[in-house]
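Intended use. Records like the one below are meant for learning the mapping from a protein sequence to its folded structure. Do not use them to infer anything beyond what is encoded.
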Amino acid sequence: MSLVDYQLMEVASDKAVKMWTRGVVIEEAARRQLSNTARMPFVFRHVAAMPDVHVGKGSTIGSVIPTQGAIIPAAVGVDIGCGMMAVRTTLTATDLPDSLSGVRGAIERAVPHGGAPGRRDPGAWSRPPPAVDDAWRLLAPGFQRIVDKYPSLARTNNHAHVGTLGTGNHFIEVCLDEDDGVWFMLHSGSRGVGNAIGTLFIELAQADMRQHLANLPDKDLAYLKEGSRHFDDYVEAVGWAQRYARTNREVMMNAVIDAVRSTIGKPFTIDGHAVNCHHNYVQRERQS
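Structure written out for the chain above:
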C-alpha cells in the first residue's frame, strides 16, 4: 500500500495541482500561477509542484507541466537545459590543502564567468581553446539549421560561450560527501544562445496568439500548437539548446578537473560516479 505524499490544490477546471510541498510556505503569487497553468486546456491530468516552487514568468519555476498538443515557451524559460553536473574523485578531504584559494584561483582562470553589460563579455572566450572548438564543431551543424530559419540567432554568443559558467545562481563547487570523498559540482545551462532561443519563441508564441491573449489568464502562457511551424521549430531549437547545455557542462567540468590537478600535488582520477542532468527542459513522453 502506497502513502500519498502530496497535497492537492483544486483549481477552477477539471485539472488539479499536485503539490510535494509539505512544510513549505508557498507564496500566493506562485499559487495563482499554478492555478492559471492548470486551467490551460491542453494540460495533461495535473500540474506538479516541487518543494522549491516559486514565481516565474507566467508559470512557476519548480513545477512539472505535462501537455498534449501544445507547449508554453515561457514555462520552459530562457535558461534552456539549465542543470547540474557532478563527478566523484579519488581524493579525500585530507588530500586538500588547508587553504583552497589556490584551487579557486585556478578554476576561475580556467572557466570564464560573470558578465558586464555594455562591455566585452568577461564570461565569454576571446580565443576559445581547442576543447571548446572541438565541442562547437559537433554543435555547429544543428545550430546552422536553426539560424537558416531564424537569422537573428547568428548574432548571439554561441561558440564563445561553450565551457563558460554565466552569472546569477550558476556556480562551481568543490564538495565533500559523507565519507569525506571529494566531488566537483557545477550548475549552468545554455548560456547566451539558449536565452536568445527562449526569448525569440516566447515572442513568437505571443505574436501567434495576438488575437487570443486577452483570453489567457497571463500573456506569458501563450503557447504554440502542435503541427504549427513555430511548434516544430521550437522543439528542434530547444532540443539543440539542451544538447548545448549538456556539452557546456562537460567542457567546464574537464577544465575544472585539469585546474585542480595543476594545484594539488596528489594525482587523482574520476572514479566513474558522474551526474549530468537538466532540471529545466522539454521531453516527449508516451503516456498510457
